[in-house]
Each structure stands twice: as structure tokens, then as C-alpha cells.
């Protein structure tokens, strides 16, 4: 194409000009124009590299239009392939490269908390109700959500709850359950149907609403300071408040919890091993400890004997007189042997030997029975002696005496059932009794000393009896006064709670609490209380303080900006004036230099003796050809403007001082530029 056929038509490339002679060929983009595999209407030949450059259609890129451009995907390099726009539902930034896979079209850089091959769904932890709404973050409660079960539902935002937990955010227990703060789900309230007003308990404390006369978390116990079965009868704890840790006794038995050194069912006396009067109980000392240790050892020994006696009664004594029975067995074997040899022995001899054996057996049995009787008599004497010595152990050995009598009775019964076992038992008891007697003899002096101390203590107690009675009466009066004051305070609590916590009507309001309770004003229904209003006022004051600080900061920033603007405007005005003065001064200096040069040329010319009239004429014409751009009026006007501009400047010394460094830098740069020429 062209007037001289110097160009190729669209769809071809080459340079058909004379002396170049590159014929026109079809554009390979990547196929030819008519091949249905071309993605460029025209192409050109690079004059330097001689490479073909295709002018690709939208969506194609590369020198041959054989790849897809950004935000397009496909296989344009194969016949029948093409590039198509990536379908990302307008959830990508088209100005950012690499939004989708150039082969598959899968979206890679989804925005607005979306994901998926086409950015069509919310990413994990986000949800939306419909496609035309943005994705919102799921607000799952950490205490009630099962974090191991995956994210929330992407279409509803429902979190995966722990057992017995409900709500979109898993932030509340199901009905009649509590303890969501455990992190393992909610537990049943288990309110007692007889003692509670409803099966629902407090969601965090688990306390059921109890009927009158019932207490405990599940309302299956008596009220505080009571014990027993609430379904049958509740009895008030009878604890001595001086000697107890708490006013609540054992809820089943009513036994009070005593302070150290104090004992008794009601904690109303000093404990065993302590002496004095409550609450001033002191230890009895080393004397009691030694004596108590002896009694405890004797008690343990007696318990062991009784246990062994019971075993002998049930099982018998197989180990007693084993040698005697063995001898009898040997003799019986000899008799059996003699009977087996009757053919060789005379019958009379046999009778004689039998008679001797009978006599020997009878003698042996008589001796053994006499020995047993003697031993039994001796043991009875030892037992009587032991009882006499044990009686000297004072009242503290009564328990031991009773058990020794039981041992004696058990020994008599065992004697009837098994003589040998009974004798063995009594022999062991004899040894134990002798040991106890020796310990009792050694402790006699300690007992005498203890009796002396007891006598002195009784005298001291008798002397202090009147003082104790007076002090006790004074304490009782004081206790009644304190109880009266407590009753008055209890009556004042409802009114005080109404003012402080907005929960009047009971000493401890079930929702608002009260001044004497564990909580106060923690519910939205208690907003009228003084405590809640005070907290609200503090919050408002804090918000106001923050707002004032923000306003103050904005004001300071505005003042600094205004000051900066004024300084910049003044500096810019001075700079413009300075530049204008410098330009006009430069022009004036150029004009002055031109006149000076002309004057010097005229002087030099006139000083020559051989000056010709033609030269003078030529010089005059040259001078007249010189043209000063400014007329005298314009020069005067320029001077007046400069003067007025200088007069309008304020604080010029400060401006000159501020711009001195900048002017020095400009001059320095100018010198460097002139040196570089």
C-alpha cells in the first residue's frame, strides 16, 4: 500500500521499499490473520532488531500474542485456544498483577475476606447471609465454642458450640444448665425439686433459688448454720462461737469445726492433751505426752491380744503341745507294730506290754493334766496380780481394765473350747500385763506430780471462779449488744442496698447484690443504684477528658499549621521579590555594560588619527542599531516598584537571616555549574 507501494497492508509485515526489499509476509500472532488463530489486527517489523512486533488485542500479550495478559486466562498458543477474563466477582484489584492463574483462571488474590476459585465464598472464620452482602467476621465466644471442630458456618455465622451451650456465638448455656466458664461446656444445675423454686440456676455461680428452710447450691441442704436432712428436720448448729472456725457445723452430724487446741462436739472445752479454759487452751506438756504414749501402747497391745483371742476362738490352737502328741503317735505306731507281729509273740507277753502301755499313757495324761492345772492356776494368779497393779493407773486405765476383763472372759470361754489354745493366749497376756505393770510403776512418780499440779490448778480455778463468772456475764452482755446492732444493720440493709445497688427489699438482692454481698450493681437491671451511677459518671468523665485532650491536640496542630503557613508565605513573598530584583538588576547591569562598551569603542575609535569619515558613519549606525529593552520611564517605574516591594516587607531582617543559608547554597550551586561548563 502507499503512493509508491512502500508499506505492507494490515495483517502483513515487511519493508518493500527500494534498496530494502523485504517482502510483505502474514503476521504470525501467533497464527496468520485468516487462520482463526490470530489475536492481532496488524503487526510491524522492528527496524533495528528486525523482529516482528504484534499489536495484540485486549487480553493478549507477548511479542506474538501467544500469552494472556493480566486478569485473563487461557491457552492462546494452541489452535482453538483463546484468552478470557478471569471471573473473580469483582473481588480483586485489577491494577495488581497476578490476580488469577493464567492457565486455569483460578483467583489467587481475593479481597474483602473472600476465597474460592472465583472469590465466591467467605474465607474461614467469616460469613454472609447472601451474595450481595459483604463477609462479616464470626464473633464466637471463646468459653463456649469448640475450637477443634472448625470455623463457623459460612452462610449463617453459627459457631460450633460445646456440649449444652447454645446461641449464635455459643455464649450461653441451655436451659437448666450453668458453668460455661469451665471451657468444657455447661453442666446441669441439678436443683433439688423439693427444695428449689425452679430447675434453673445462676448461669455462672450455679446457685439454685431455694425455698424457705433449704440451703446449699442445689437447695438439698439445710440453711447456713443448720444441719440435718432438710426433708426431715433441720437443727441449728450449737457451736461455741469462741472455739469454732466457722458458724457452720457438719451438715450431716452437727459436729462443730474447732480451733486448734479446742475440742468437744460443740467446741466448748479444751481438747485432749490441752488444759486451761477456752479460748486460752495450752498443751499439757511432756508429762502428759509420756503418760499418753504409755497408755496408747497398752491400748494397742490389748487390742492385738483381743484380736488374736478372736482368731483362736474361730480357728483353734494347732501349735500347742505338738511334742506330746508326737510322742503319743510314736507309741501308737509301736502298738500297731506289735499287733502285726502276733504270730511270733506270746499272747501273755502282749497283754503285759499292753498293760504297761496303758499305765504309761495314763501316767502321761495325768502328768500333762496336772501340769496344765498348775499353769492355769499360775496364770490366774498373774491375771489377778495384773488387775491389782493396773488399778493403780488411776481413772485413765479404766478402759484398759474393761478390756482386760473382756480378755479374762474370752480366756474362760476359750478354756472350755480349747485348753491348749487358751493357755497360750493367757501366757501371752501374762507377758503383756507384766510389761504394763512395769510401765505403771515407772509412771507412779509422774502420776503423783500430775496430781499435785492438778490440785494447784483446781485451787487456782476456784480462786478465779468469781472473776470468770463476772467476765462471762460481761461477755454475754456485750454479745447481746452486738447481736442487737447486727439486727439493726440487717434492717438497714434493704434501704442501703436500694441506694447503693438499686436492689432493696432483701439483705442481698438476687440480681443487684448489696452493700454486704459479694456483688453490687453488676446487672443491667441495677442501673439506678448509686454505685452503678457513680461508675457511669466516672466513665463519662474519662470520655470527656479524652475528648478535651483530642480537641486540645487538634487546636495545637492547627496553631502550628497556621504559624507554618504564615512563615512559608512570608518566605515565598520575599524570595519572589528577591528574584525579581535580581533579574531586573541583571538586566540593568547588562544595559550599563553595553553602554560602557560602546563608550569605550567610541573613545578608542576617536583616538585614532587615521579615522575615516566612512568609519565614523559606520560606527554611528552600529550604535543606533543597539537597542536597550527598557525606556527611561520603564526603568524609573521598575525602580519605584522595587522600592515599594521592599517597603511592604515586614520583618525583613528575620527573612534575610532565614534565607541567607538558602542563598548561599544557590550561589554555591551556581559556582559549581559554571565550573562544570
Automatic annotation (TrEMBL):
Q: Which organism is it from?
A: Callosobruchus maculatus
Family annotation (PROSITE patterns): EGF_1, EGF_LAM_1, EGF_LAM_2
An individual GO BP term: axon guidance
Q: Which CDD domains match?
A: EGF_Lam
Q: Where is it located?
A: Secreted, Extracellular space, Extracellular matrix, Basement membrane
Cite the entry's keywords alphabetically.
Answer: Basement membrane, Coiled coil, Disulfide bond, Extracellular matrix, Glycoprotein, Laminin EGF-like domain, Repeat, Secreted, Signal
Q: Name one Pfam family in it.
A: EGF_laminin
Gene Ontology annotations for the cellular component aspect, listed alphabetically:
laminin complex
Query: Could you list the residue ranges forming a coiled coil in this record?
Result: 325-446
Q: Where is the Laminin EGF-like domain?
A: 138-188, 189-236, 237-283
What name does this protein carry? Laminin EGF-like domain-containing protein
InterPro entries recorded for this chain? EGF, Laminin/Netrin_ECM, LE_dom
**Disulphides:** 161-170, 189-201, 191-208, 210-219, 237-249, 239-256, 258-267
Amino acid at each position: 500500500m502507499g503512493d509508491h507501494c512502500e508499506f505492507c497492508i494490515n495483517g502483513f509485515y515487511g519493508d518493500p521499499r527500494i534498496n530494502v526489499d523485504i517482502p510483505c509476509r502474514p503476521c504470525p500472532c501467533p497464527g496468520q490473520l485468516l487462520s482463526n488463530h490470530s489475536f492481532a489486527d496488524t503487526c510491524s517489523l522492528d527496524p533495528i532488531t528486525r523482529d516482528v512486533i504484534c499489536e495484540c488485542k485486549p487480553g493478549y500479550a507477548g511479542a506474538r500474542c501467544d500469552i494472556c495478559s493480566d486478569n485473563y486466562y487461557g491457552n492462546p498458543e494452541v489452535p482453538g485456544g483463546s484468552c478470557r477474563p478471569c471471573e473473580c466477582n469483582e473481588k480483586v484489584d485489577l491494577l495488581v498483577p497476578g490476580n488469577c492463574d493464567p492457565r486455569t483462571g483460578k483467583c489467587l488474590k481475593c479481597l474483602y475476606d473472600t476465597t474460592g476459585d472465583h472469590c465466591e465464598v467467605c474465607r474461614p472464620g467469616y460469613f454472609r447471609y447472601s451474595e450481595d452482602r459483604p463477609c462479616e467476621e464470626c464473633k464466637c465466644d471463646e468459653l463456649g465454642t469448640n475450637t477443634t471442630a472448625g470455623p463457623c458456618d459460612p452462610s449463617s455465622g453459627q459457631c460450633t458450640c460445646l456440649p449444652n451451650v447454645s446461641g449464635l456465638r455459643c455464649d450461653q448455656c441451655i436451659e437448666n444448665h450453668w458453668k460455661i466458664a469451665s471451657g468444657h461446656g455447661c453442666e446441669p444445675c441439678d436443683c433439688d425439686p423439693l427444695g428449689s423454686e425452679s430447675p434453673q440456676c445462676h448461669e455462672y455461680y450455679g446457685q439454685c433459688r431455694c425455698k424457705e428452710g433449704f440451703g446449699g447450691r442445689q437447695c438439698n441442704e439445710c440453711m447456713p448454720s443448720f444441719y440435718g436432712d432438710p426433708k426431715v428436720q433441720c437443727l441449728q448448729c450449737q457451736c461455741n462461737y469462741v472455739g469454732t472456725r466457722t458458724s457452720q457445723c457438719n451438715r450431716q452430724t452437727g459436729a462443730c469445726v474447732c480451733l486448734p487446741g479446742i475440742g468437744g462436739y460443740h467446741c466448748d472445752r479444751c481438747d485432749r492433751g490441752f488444759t486451761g479454759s477456752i479460748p486460752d487452751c495450752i498443751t499439757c506438756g511432756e508429762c502428759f505426752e509420756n503418760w499418753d504414749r504409755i497408755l496408747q501402747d497398752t491400748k494397742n497391745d490389748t487390742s492385738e491380744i483381743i484380736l488374736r483371742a478372736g482368731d483362736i476362738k474361730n480357728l483353734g490352737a494347732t501349735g500347742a503341745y505338738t511334742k506330746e502328741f508326737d510322742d503319743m503317735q510314736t507309741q501308737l505306731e509301736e502298738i500297731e507294730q506289735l499287733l502285726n507281729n502276733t504270730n511270733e509273740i506270746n499272747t501273755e507277753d502282749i497283754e503285759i506290754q499292753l498293760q504297761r502301755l496303758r499305765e504309761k499313757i495314763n501316767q502321761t495324761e495325768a502328768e500333762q493334766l496336772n501340769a496344765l492345772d498348775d499353769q492355769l492356776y499360775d496364770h490366774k494368779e498373774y491375771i489377778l496380780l495384773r488387775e491389782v497393779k493396773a488399778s493403780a493407773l488411776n481413772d485413765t486405765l479404766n478402759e484398759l481394765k474393761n478390756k482386760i476383763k473382756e480378755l479374762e472372759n474370752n480366756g474362760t470361754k476359750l478354756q472350755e473350747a480349747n485348753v491348749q489354745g487358751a493357755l497360750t493366749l493367757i501366757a501371752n497376756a501374762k507377758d503383756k500385763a507384766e510389761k504394763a505393770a512395769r510401765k505403771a510403776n515407772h509412771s507412779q512418780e509422774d502420776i503423783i506430780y500430775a496430781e499435785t499440779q492438778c490440785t494447784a490448778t483446781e485451787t487456782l480455778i476456784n480462786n478465779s471462779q468469781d472473776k470468770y463468772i463476772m467476765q462471762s456475764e460481761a461477755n454475754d452482755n456485750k454479745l447481746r449488744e452486738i447481736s442487737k446492732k447486727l439486727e439493726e444493720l440487717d434492717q438497714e440493709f434493704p434501704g442501703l442496698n436500694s441506694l447503693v445497688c438499686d436492689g432493696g427489699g432483701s439483705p442481698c438482692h438476687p440480681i443487684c447484690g448489696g452493700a454486704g454481698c459479694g456483688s453490687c450493681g453488676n446487672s443491667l437491671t441495677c442501673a439506678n443504684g448509686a454505685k452503678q451511677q457513680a461508675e457511669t459518671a466516672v466513665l463519662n468523665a474519662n470520655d470527656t477528658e479524652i475528648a478535651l485532650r483530642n480537641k486540645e491536640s487538634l487546636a495545637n496542630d492547627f496553631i502550628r499549621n497556621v504559624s507554618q503557613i504564615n512563615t512559608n508565605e512570608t518566605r515565598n513573598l520575599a524570595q519572589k521579590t528577591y528574584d525579581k530584583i535580581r533579574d531586573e538588576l541583571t538586566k540593568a547591569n547588562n544595559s550599563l555594560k553595553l553602554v560602557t562598551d560602546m563608550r569605550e569603542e567610541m573613545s578608542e575609535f576617536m583616538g585614532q588619527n587615521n579615522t575615516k569619515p566612512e568609519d565614523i558613519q559606520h560606527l554611528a549606525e552600529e550604535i543606533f542599531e543597539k537597542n536597550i529593552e527598557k525606556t527611561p520611564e520603564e526603568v524609573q517605574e521598575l525602580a519605584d516598584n522595587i522600592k515599594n516591594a521592599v517597603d511592604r516587607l515586614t520583618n525583613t531582617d528575620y527573612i534575610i537571616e532565614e534565607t541567607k543559608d538558602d542563598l548561599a547554597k544557590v550561589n554555591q550551586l551556581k559556582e559549581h555549574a559554571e565550573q562544570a561548563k
